[in-house]
Amino acid sequence: MQRTAELLARARDGDGDAFRALVEPHRGELQLHCYRVLGSVQDAEDVLQETLLAAWRGIGAFEGRASVRTWLYRIATNRCLNALRAGDRRSPVDYRPEVSLPEPSHRHAEPAWLEPYPDVLLDGVADHAPGPDARYELRESVSLAFLAALQGLPPRQRVVLVLRDVLGFRAAEVAVMLGTTPDAVAGALKRARAAMPGRAGSPPSPRERRVVDEFVRAFEAGDVDAVVALLSDDVRLSMPPLPLVYEGLADVRNFLTTVAMRDGRRHRLVPTRANGQPAFGAYLLTPIPRAHGVLVLTMAGDRVAGLTRFVDNSLLAAFGLPRSLRGGSR
């Protein structure tokens, strides 16, 4: 506490090093907060930079009535709301499939702007979820299912749910952040909770990890039957930002046969993790294997319940993965 007071005093006097020492411990969780609200890693990074700049410019007026962390969350939350009101987000990548895609069972999948979040960015992020009655734990609150559902909420309900049920801020604190009343916060939270899906399942088991390994072997071998044998009956395949979703074994099998693995096409999957889930940099095997997006798996027990392929190859950089594999095919 004494060190914080000393750093705060120096930062108010214009000491940039002291300011960085104050805010750096919160950088990771602030970026994750912006990502939860905005659904895009790139937009979250932009808003994080705006937040830190606003905090630096406003440090002289910070009176210390709340903690530095709470103060930073207030700035970040309102910057996120400003971005949502302005509708100023990157246009989705203009992806044109190489072949005609089969007619899907549904035309709308995840929000077009939704991007995967590298698990490496979660390292060191403290879990501030509230007590034993916490609705969402860290792993659950970064899952693609949670993020997609969250993006469907009105902005004010979205930030209230994240601040209260994910981060554990008190209603009075959230009211101050948003310039409203605790009763208004309680009402927004009630409506947001009613619109969200049920809780996620248990953490990964050794069996699930074996299933993921089997999936990789089958997918890389181009064995459609072996891949389908690992899927749940209600499996769901989507490709943000395309507004398409294929549901059920028949539709997914048809997609794998006629598109992903047509004419003997083969892939290499380079393992990573995204949103607390198994993920891969996907590469199409050509003389120099070329990028084919980021593939994220959603597990349900010992089955793969979801395949989400983000088609924007620029996302690979966030995972430390290249655009091509110079070593060629295996």
TrEMBL record:
Keywords: DNA-binding, Sigma factor, Transcription, Transcription regulation. Residues 212-286 form the SnoaL-like domain. It comes from the Bacteria. Pfam families: Sigma70_r2 (PF04542), Sigma70_r4_2 (PF08281), SnoaL_2 (PF12680). Residues 144-196 form the RNA polymerase sigma factor 70 region 4 type domain. Residues 22-89 form the RNA polymerase sigma-70 region domain. Belongs to the sigma-70 factor family. ECF subfamily. NCBIfam families: PRK08241.1 (NF006089), sigma70-ECF (TIGR02937), SigX5 (TIGR02960). Interacts transiently with the RNA polymerase catalytic core formed by RpoA, RpoB, RpoC and RpoZ (2 alpha, 1 beta, 1 beta' and 1 omega subunit) to form the RNA polymerase holoenzyme that can initiate transcription. This is RNA polymerase sigma factor. It comes from Saccharothrix mutabilis subsp. mutabilis.
